[in-house]
Amino acid sequence: MQRKFAGIGAIVMLVAVALGAFGAHILEPQIGEKAIGTYETGVHYHMIHGIAMILAAFAAGLGLDQKRLLWANRLFLTGIILFSGSLYLLAVTGWKWFGPITPLGGVSFIVGWLMFALALLKKEK
Predict the structure, then answer these.
(1) Which whole-number Å values give the CA distances from 3 to 26, 32, 76, 106, 116, in the listed order?
(2) Rounded CA gap, 54 and 21, in Å?
(3) Helix, strand, or coil (residue 28)
(4) In this structure, how many other beta carbons lie within 10 angstroms of the beta carbon of residue 33?
(5) Which listed site, 12, 34, 59, 88, has its alpha carbon 20 to 30 Å from 42?
(6) Cα–Cα distance measured from residue 74 to residue 38, given in angstroms and rounded to the nearest whole number
(7) Among 57, 66, 45, which residue's Cα sits nearest to residue 10?
C-alpha cells in the first residue's frame, strides 16, 4: 500500500510543478497579483505535502507503524485536495464560498503530520 502512496506522491508532485508553471506563465496576467498569491500558496502546500507523502511511504519501508503512516498519507492527500484545491479554485474563479473549505484541508494536514509524528515516535516492541 505504501508503494502505491509513494507513486501517488510522485504524481502529486508532477501536478504541483505543472500547476506552478501554469500559474507563473499563463495565469498570473489573467487573474492579477492578489489572486496569484492565493494560487501560489496552494502550490506551496501542494508541493510540501506531495513530498511528505513520499517520505511517509519510505518511512513505512523502515518498519515503522504502517497504520499511522497510511493515515498520514490519506490525510496529506485529502489536505491537498481540500486546501490547495480550494485555493486554486478561489484564485481562478474569485468565488468566496471556496474559502470555508480551505481550513478543512489545513486540519487534514495537521492531523496527517500528527499521524506521521506518532508513527516515528512509537516505541518498538
Answers:
(1) 34, 40, 15, 25, 16
(2) 22
(3) helix
(4) 7
(5) 59
(6) 24
(7) 57
CA distance 41 to 64: 31
The rounded distance, in Å, linking the Cα atoms of 80 and 63 is 26
The DSSP output letter for 61 is T
DSSP 32: -
pTM over 0.85: yes
- Confidence check: pLDDT of 32 > 90: no
The Cα–Cα gap between 124 and 44 comes to 34
Query: Over the stretch 4-25, which tens digit does the pLDDT of each residue have?
Result: 889 999 999 999 999 999 998 8
- Helices and strands (DSSP H and E) totals, the chain: 6, 0
At residue 62 the predicted structure's pLDDT band, cuts being 50, 70 and 90, is confident
* pLDDT recorded at residue 124: 67
Taking the alpha carbons of 86, 14, 45, 23 in that order, is the dihedral positive or negative? negative
